Each structure stands twice: as structure tokens, then as C-alpha cells.
């Protein structure tokens, strides 16, 4: 009688342990680097007493305004549809984004906010470029002035 080895049943399983290890390493990397991601640039807006809120300016229009920021170093940023601010744009890139958004909804407000320490020339240059691009109305953003006793 000849020796016959036992026949093994083939199984088709995927070993997921290496995938779990890689996932945990990536999770740790993202958790460590997340605090270092810069979500925006601090802009100290000038203060005024007569400023209107965006809601008051945006009568019967649910579209959020296009916000253009100029930081203290003159760097430009834009936020469209309340999205995160995109920084480091050139003036031409900024104008292109604003014009593209206004082409789809011409009634969208355009608001420019400049840091209080920004040279006035940077704000005027941005306003002038928006005007030459055909943006009809541009608002200037400010913070409300604190009233004495508050």
C-alpha cells in the first residue's frame, strides 16, 4: 500500500495585518503633523463705527461673498463660497479666480480685507486691479469698533 499524503483544502484569504500596520503608521504621521498645518493668516482689520455687516449688504442673496485678503506683507489670498482661504496668489491668479466666480453669479459680493499694518498702496493696487477686471462693486472689510464700557 502506497503512502498518500493528505489533501489540503486551499483557502483564499488575504493577510490584512500589513495593511493595518501601514494604516496605523499613517495615522500617527497625520496626527503629529496636523497641528503644524496653517489654516490661515491672521489679518488685523482696521476698526470702524459705521460698518455694516455682510448680511445687511447681501440683501436677498444667499451666496456668500468672495473675500480677498491682503496680509501685512502684501501677500494675497481669496476665499470663495466660505471655503478655506487660498494664500500665496499672484494678482493675476486672484483676478482670474474672482472673474470666474462672478461669471457664474454676477450678484456675488466682493469684499477686500487688508491687515491694519498693510501699506495702503497694496490695498489700492488690489482694488485697482479688481476695478480693471470689471468688478463693479467692492466692499472693504473692517472690524466693529469696541464701544467704551464694553
From TrEMBL:
UniProt KW keywords: Cell cycle, Cell division, Cell inner membrane, Cell membrane, Membrane, Transmembrane, Transmembrane helix
Any one GO molecular-function label of the UniProt entry: transmembrane transporter activity
Membrane topology of this protein: Single-pass membrane protein
Highest taxon in the source lineage: Bacteria
Location within or outside the cell: Cell inner membrane; Cell membrane
Family listed: Belongs to the ExbD/TolR family.
Function (record text): Part of the Tol-Pal system, which plays a role in outer membrane invagination during cell division and is important for maintaining outer membrane integrity.
Full protein name: Tol-Pal system protein TolR
Organism whose genome encodes this protein: Photobacterium aquimaris
